[in-house]
Amino acid sequence: MKFLVDRCAGHRLAEWLRQQGHDVLEAAQLGPDPGDAELLRIAAEQGRVTITIDSDFGTLIYRDRALHAGLVRLPGVLATQRITLLQQVLERYGDQLNAAAVVTVRGSRIRVSSSG
């Protein structure tokens, strides 16, 4: 699977995804922060699921109808828990992410929704 990992989600998470064999682009590799809308556009253009803790991406997708290739939101998830929770998301909802689902993890709750 291909991912774009937002700066706020962390380098450690990006490295773990690479170790699992995924194609990972970190937002930090793109230079100065281009903003959420541009990150989402780049991810969509390259077929990458965006991973972030920022809630603004959901607003872009649902309110502004921004194109995307899937989104994993981890708002409030501690850095020490992100890998474990993302592993659960990928195991349980990988097919939905491949179909551009939006997955939100809050505490122990995981919500999967279509953006359409």
List keywords for this structure.
Rossmann fold; alpha/beta; 4 helices
List the helices and strands and how they pair.
Elements: E1 2-5, H1 11-19, E2 23-26, H2 36-46, E3 49-52, H3 56-62, E4 71-73, H4 79-98, E5 102-106, E6 109-113
Parallel strand pairs: 1-2, 1-3, 3-4, 4-5
Antiparallel strand pairs: 5-6
Q: What can you tell me about this protein's structure?
A:
- The structure is a single chain.
- 41% of the residues lie in helices and 22% in strands.
- The protein is an alpha/beta fold and 116 residues long.
- It has one domain: 3-Layer(aba) Sandwich (Rossmann fold), CATH 3.40.50.
- It has a six-stranded mixed β-sheet with strand order 2-1-3-4-5-6, sandwiched between helices.
